[in-house]
Write a structure and sequence with these properties.
Layout lengths: L1 H20 L13 E5 L5 H17 L5 E5 L2 H13 L6 E5 H8 L7 H4 L2 H7 L2 H6 L1 E2 L2 E2 L2 E12 L1 H6 L9 H12 L6 E3 L7 H12 L16 H15 L9 H9 L3 E6 L3 H7 L7 H4 L1 E3 L13 E9 L6 H12 L1 H11 L6 H4 L2 H4 L2 H10 L13 H16 L5 H13 L3
Parallel strand pairs: 1-2, 1-3, 7-8
Antiparallel strand pairs: 3-10, 4-5, 6-8, 6-9, 6-10
């Protein structure tokens, strides 16, 4: 918590300098001019048109009321939200991702959705896993907007050649499947798990959970080097020794190789469908060469593990039009808006009734991803202001283990020691 406060203090200090030199807003909105919605996606070319429609369609349904969009590049959004909140400029509702959410929540400036929308509305409309992403200190400070997990994707055609008609369900079956794929001609990489840069830590974390390990225990003590953590690292090293995974594999590399039919499995976000098409996979071929799957479990009956990813909506305590902000938020997550957002930009819907609708259930991609997300959880570093440093530690120690420079136990112990120094 002290680190969270220090990060906020640095943002506030920076904001003072910005106020002295002038704001970089793409527009301005004073008190009394309707609700103000802030974020970054509306500034991006791929999302600008639909973000405009989101606003105008709500205005058409609510004559006399307006929504003003204020946007910045993603990298500036957290700082600019703090600036706007502490100043005299209007701010009612904002788009945040998990990292931005942690920073803004630490300022104490966010309203509780339990009070804004009611616990009944939340429980009736959102999965518990999605709600958990926006919960801090017993309060629902973030409303799920487009939430999914980082899941696994496989190539059915490659699996069929290896004798598998469906993806493996357990870790043991998964390893057997990888071994069968390794015997196929064509230098196919069985599993394109990330093994370099910070993404390696993100891919490792759900496997750590799968083996029963955690980065921290319930009391905040570092536990990555316990028996389960070492077991997970040993499994990784075993995959490397069998040439079932590769060193120096990034998410970018895996996406490219998967689109070329040279990787059988890899980890990615729900946007992987559009990325595959962008990398040259014909859209009508997607079901044959790219499908999402639930992560294999250690033992039959275990809960499949995945790490949450996505965007939320937050309302600020200083808002004088919270009712309109809530109405607009409900509009954004509604069936019509969320389905258009999904079809245009690949962002998944979050309302349970929408997820259960025929349109979603008949879409093989989003319906399968909904099952992945149902048991997902927020990454153990995601609400920590020192996330970048912590993910770097895990990535470096994982690499040392995979290259044989350290034993799994040594790598786990060194990771634990380094993590303790940044908490």
């Amino acid at each position: 918590m002290k680190k969270a406060i220090s990060v906020v203090c640095m943002l506030l200090a920076f904001s003072a300098a910005v106020f002295a030199g002038g704001s970089g807003d793409s527009g301005s909105a004073k008190q009394g001019s309707g609700i103000v919605w802030c974020g970054w996606s509306g500034e991006e070319e791929a999302s600008r048109e639909i973000f405009t429609w989101m606003r105008t369609s709500w205005e058409e349904q609510n004559p006399g009321k307006t929504v003003t969009w204020i946007g910045w590049p993603w990298a500036e959004t957290a700082t600019q939200l703090v600036i706007r909140n502490q100043g005299n400029e209007r701010i009612d509702i904002a788009q945040v991702d998990i990292g931005i959410f942690a920073t803004i929540a630490a300022t104490g400036s966010l309203a509780d959705w339990n009070d804004l929308a009611g616990t009944g509305y939340l429980k009736d409309n959102f999965e518990e896993a999605s709600l958990a992403v926006g919960q801090i200190g017993g309060k629902q400070l973030g409303l799920p907007w487009s939430i999914a997990s980082i899941g696994m994707i496989y190539n059915p055609e490659i699996l069929a050649k290896a004798g598998y008609s469906e993806p493996p369900k357990t870790v043991a079956e998964f390893e057997q499947c990888l071994e069968a794929i390794a015997k196929l001609p064509g230098d196919i990489i069985p599993y394109g798990v990330a093994t370099k840069d910070a993404t390696a830590a993100n891919d490792f974390m759900p496997w750590l959970w799968t083996f029963g390990g955690r980065m921290y225990d319930a009391n905040g003590n570092v536990t990555v080097n316990n028996t389960q953590g070492v077991q997970a690292l040993t499994w990784y090293k075993n995959l490397m020794d069998k040439k079932l995974i590769r060193t120096n594999m990034s998410r970018f590399d895996a996406r490219q190789l998967f689109a070329q039919g040279r990787i059988a499995f890899y980890d990615d976000a729900i946007l992987a469908k559009g990325i595959a098409v962008g990398n040259g996979v014909p859209e009508d071929r997607l079901p044959q060469v790219a499908r999402p799957m639930v992560r294999p479990v250690l033992n039959t009956g275990d809960k499949p593990r995945s790490m949450m990813w996505g965007h939320m909506l937050v309302v600020f305590n200083k808002s004088n039009d919270k009712d309109d902000a809530v109405s607009f938020a409900k509009h954004l997550v509604s069936k019509d808006v969320s389905m258009r957002y999904f079809s245009r930009n690949g962002m998944p819907p979050v309302l349970k009734p929408v997820i259960a609708s025929p349109e979603v259930q008949n879409d093989y991609w989003v319906s399968n991803w909904s099952r992945i997300t149902a048991t997902g959880e927020i990454g153990e570093f995601d609400l920590n202001p020192q996330k970048n440093q912590l993910t770097t530690i895990i990535a470096e120690e994982l690499q040392a283990c995979l290259t044989g420079d350290k034993t799994p136990q040594k790598a786990a112990d060194d990771a634990a020691s380094r993590m303790k120094n940044v908490r």
